[in-house]
Amino acid sequence: MDPLKPPSRLRRALTILVQVLVVAGLAVGGYFGWKKWQKSSEKPPEYVTDKVQTLPLLIERTTATGTLQPLVTVQVGSQVSGRIVKLYANFNSMVHKGDLLAELDPTLYASQVAQARANLAQSRAVLQRDEATQRSALKTLHRVQTLFAKQLAVQADLDNAVAAAEISKADVANAEANIVQGEAALALQETNLTYCKIHSPVDGVVLSRAVDVGQTVAASLQAPVLFTIAQDLGSMQVHANVDEADIGKLAEGMPAAFTVDAYRGMTFLGVVSQLRLSPQTVQNVVTYDAVVDVKNIANRLKPGLTATVVFETAQRKGILAVPNAALRWRPTADDKVEGETGAKGGRAPTEPGQKTGKKPSDALLDLPTGVSSTELGKVPPSRVYLMRDKKLVPVDVVTGVTDGRFTEVLSGNVHAEDLLVIRRLEKGGTSGSGKAPQGMPRRMF
Predict the structure, then answer these.
(1) Beta bridge partner(s), residue 47
(2) What CA–CA distance (Å, rounded) separates 76 from 73?
(3) Domains of the chain: total
(4) What is the pLDDT of residue 43?
């Protein structure tokens, strides 16, 4: 066949036929694919639900971290400068009040004491001399007065005698003042000499020692710390940093439990003794210091250990509770909710006090014991979605305490065994929020 010869009519017809069949196949496939997609899109969504439960006990807890510290920590320093010549205490040494801890070189201060004593002795000798001079001046004054009365002495002699007597009296007073000054100087130097021996001010255990023998201690501006003594390790404190969002839940006398990494599996008990008002701000995070007193049985706990503290802030018995996942879930625009209109699930929950044709209390159940209507009115409602007859029904509830998994229901039109939506299953059987938590009942509609 000649390749330059035009194709025959039969070949052109076959080519056109093949092209028509291909186009028709694509059209038919697209049509059936569109019908299948439309059918699948009309399939109602599936939801994961959980039940409203009646719990015999619900405990709300708050967690914080802190540091173990002794009740009383004393920093022992030196009031004088000098070289350490002896040490009588070391790390972990048990000491009693008055025990000798360290000794500084006393040579310099002993010399100053001797000099102060010599100055005092000199002042006393000067006093004796001035007292003798005063006695002589008084005798001279008496003689001149006698002669002046007999007109055997002139007025100038009397004036000189009076002046000499007054000068001697002033010299005696000055000498007495010098003696008082010398005694004070001697007492100061003797006190400095006693400061060369460092004694323990309390009974306790030495936590740290900051000096060694031969080291020079300089106490010119402030007293250097030589030892740190914990007064009593049988009772300790945990200083827990509580977040500002949780500090309002704590109160003095509240029980607390904590654990430390040093003793895994052991739980230590304590009591909140103080909530300090001074805030601590670190990187814009505000915390408050909650002091927990704890008995250090068998001295297991060590100062400085990091403790994870759990405060039991509230207890509720025999309450109605909803799962927290139901409080977090919100419908989208594709979900059909009974009584709601608008985008993304429709209207927002009605706040107390808004005009709805009913008083806010009309939609609420009986108040629980200890909760007043005034307090209840201040709590904003939360919205959950019931699954009734395969339809989403919004319900507003007022919630109370929570343990992180369930939340107490103070009021609202929910009952035990009601099914609440906690998640929507995406097409294909997958959930947008991942797998359901273990231990939680699950039902799909």
Answers:
(1) 424
(2) 10
(3) 4
(4) 65
Is 24 contained in some domain? no
For the ranges 16-25, 113-122, 335-344, 394-403, the lowest mean pLDDT is seen at 335-344
Task: Using alpha carbons, list the distances in angstroms from residue 53 to 59, 163, 222, 402, 426.
Answer: 15, 109, 65, 13, 27
My answer on whether 219 and 151 are in the same domain is no
- pLDDT category at 11 given cuts 50, 70, 90 is confident
Place of tokens 């070189």: 105
Residues with Cβ within 8 Å of residue 52, at least 6 apart in sequence: 320, 321, 322, 409, 414, 415, 416, 417, 418, 419, 420
Residue 272 in any domain: the answer is yes
Predicted model pTM: 0.65
Last residue of a domain, one of 184, 207, 230: 230
Residue 21 within a domain = no
> pLDDT > 90: what percent of the chain?
67
Using alpha carbons only, give the angle 247, 252, 254 rounded to the nearest 5 degrees: 90
Give yes or no: residues 251 and 347 share one domain: no
Query: Is residue 343 predicted with pLDDT exceeding 70?
Result: no
**CA neighbor of 121 nearest in space, from 63, 188, 179, 171:** 179
Question: What CA–CA distance (Å, rounded) separates 346 from 338?
Answer: 10
Enclosing domain of residue 386:
47-58+317-444
Q: Which of 144, 177, 171, 175 is nearest to 159 (CA)?
A: 144
Of 100-109, 142-151, 424-433, the least confident: 424-433
| 206 and 116 within one domain | no
Q: How far apart are CA 200 and CA 95, in angstroms?
A: 7
Q: Are residues 367 and 439 in the same domain?
A: yes
72 sits in the region (left: phi over 0; alpha: psi -120 to 50; else beta) called: beta
Nearest residue to 425 via CA among 445, 408, 405, 398: 445
In terms of domains, do 331 and 285 share one?
Answer: no
Question: Which residues, in sequence order, are CB contacts of 131 under 8 Å at separation 6+?
Answer: 172, 175
Confidence bin at 440 (pLDDT 50/70/90): very low
Residues 95 and 210 in one domain: yes
Rounded to an integer, the average pLDDT of 206-217 is: 94
Of 259, 287, 315, the last residue of a domain is 315
